[in-house]
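Protein in question filed below.

…
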Amino acid sequence: MAEDFARAVDDGLKLAKRIYFGHDRAVAAPRLTAPMERSSTSQAHLPSAPMVYAVIPDPGIVDNPDLPSYQPHVHGRCDPPALIPLQMNSIELHVDCYLDTALVTVTGSWRVHCVMGSKKCDCRIAIPIGDKGSILGVEVEIPRKSYATQLITAQDGNELEKTAQPQSGGFLKPNIFTLTVPQVDGGTNLSIKMSWSQKLTYNDGQFFLDIPFNFPEYVTPAVKKISKREKIHLSVNAGTGTEVLCKGCSHPLKEKMRNAGKLRFAYEADVLKWSSTDFSFSYTVSSSSIVGGLFLQPASVQDVDQRDIFSFYLFPGKQQSTKAFKREVVFVVDISKSMAGKPLEDVKNAISTALSKLNPRDSFNIITFSDDTSLFSTSMESVTPDAVERGVEWMNKSFVVADGTNMLPPLEKAVEMLSNTRGSVPMIFFLTDGSVEDERHICTVMKKRLANAGSVWPRIHTFGLGVFCNHYFLQMLANLSRGQHESVYNTDHIEERLDKLFTRALSTVLLNITIEPLQNLDEVEVYPSNIPDLTSSSPLMVYGRYRGKFPESVKANGLLGDLSSFSVDLTVQSAKDMPLDKVFAKNVIDLLTAEAWFSEDNQLKEKITRLSIQTGVPSEYTRMIQLENTEEASKPINTGGKKKTETNGEKQKVVSRTIPLQNFGIGFGDTTATKENVPPGFGEARAPDAAEKFVKAASSCCVSLCNKCCCMCCVQCCTKLNDQCVIVFTQLFTAIACIACFECCSHVCCGGDD
């Protein structure tokens, strides 16, 4: 999908060369891709900032709507349609950072500069979203029309699809959302507002914000006289109540406000060219030791859950003097045939790197599974240079793909090997790209085994590859054990994401965290229900709902690296200017969806649906639609040969239309794809069906003939033929085509060569 999109943009840039802007150009015409660069076209033409494209099925409509060039007509059509990037007139970025989440809004204006004024085309919006982001909404304004995305229940979405065909829209890649605006006139200006949420990254006491904001040169308006206004607004609410220090910024922001735990910046300028770098900002909330706080917020009147809200955070501090935990680590790796090639190679490299970072006090083992289970060692191996080298050699020999995906035996074996640990943190890293039918049974078995594993039970950290595994099963498995869950939907970043999971899980600084005295409340619910461990590479953020009088004095308790008890007071404060429900919405919806999948509780599914619609965060139980509002023209009135427009002081009538969009939920795994060993990936091309095989076979004869001689030779030869000879050759080639079709039909219908 992404490669097709990039090729369509490449075709669109070639078509854009036809557009004549006169002599008053501000930028050069789009540069064509050189032959040596075409291998990287799929990456070069993917959006690196919010973009809008004209969808061009007919190249004949491409022209300057203000200054027609009267170029020769282009015959034929673009299949698939070409995508011409629209020129951008203004852009405004608004970012609000709360705790570890950024709420982003981009408002801009784009012009259909490449289509004749008398013609129409679809316009496709593409929005690259930052780390672990979620699209929240898109609004579009054009003359006499407006569009806005909304969420409806999955049931209503299914009913709507019975009467209307779903339109293109959804995720081109896991981090690129697209939406199509139908039939926009050439020369029209589109005002677009797009919103999403994304996570901040954290490292060594600093938060890092990175927003795709790198616009290619060809979206700059070609006419010099058009003013170009660029605005950026940034606010930071770290929630700590202590001083926040800015460490770095990509754009020249001016400080507008500084209070305890809060910052506000702004930037506004007329520019010659749009931003050519992503917007990045970093700030520090570091401390020498573990610190935390707690926020309280009453539920709003519109809230579907009328229980009050609380949220607490813990920052790890620098922890140089804190004793590290002794770790016992078991890697459980899926080696089914779908993992062949790059996925399994990346997993092996990531595990090798993780082994090199373990301490001599630690121990490890490696288990592989397909239909069968294999162990590196029958017992845990102490981390020594020799043991690590033998482990890497074993992976090189044993990471050989095989049939089947049997998950329960290796998990039970890993828990059994860690059942007698003393004075250490037992960890299981479970990696798979598949889905099996007994996943709920696996969760039930693991829940019972963990309950009998003592006070420090094994943490199961899960990693899902691709879209065919059940990420909610893996999320549930991690939640049951206070573990971490990480996912990657395509094969581009497996090693990078795995390294993040290993680094985060292996840097634990506080175990078995509890909050006291929450038990005195009338009712309390925490997300997640089993609070994960605090690590030095990531702060801990927990969300909850409660009824009753919240205690004035609250403490967070846990175990340090030497297994001694630790306690820290949490400063309780009111979160008046922090939308906690939106900040935690995606995380809460994901956690509840995992629980709803496991329990098969319909009431919980309805709760998720209401929460999704309220916060605008898509879920598995909602569908996104596009609402089109059209202002109808007033009716003319005849008054003795003259026509007047009837208004009567009333507003123009607005006609609404609901456009269903394609479902872009990740679903609950695909056991069929797992059994068929389909490789992991996002938007993978499906296998060709019978009709596609028929067309391909029918055309193979002509293709093979054309490959024997060049096109110019054919043209020169045909110009020398007389009419009678042309007729004979026409009949001959028609007969050959019929024979090819007959052979194809026999192959497709009979299912083989017999």
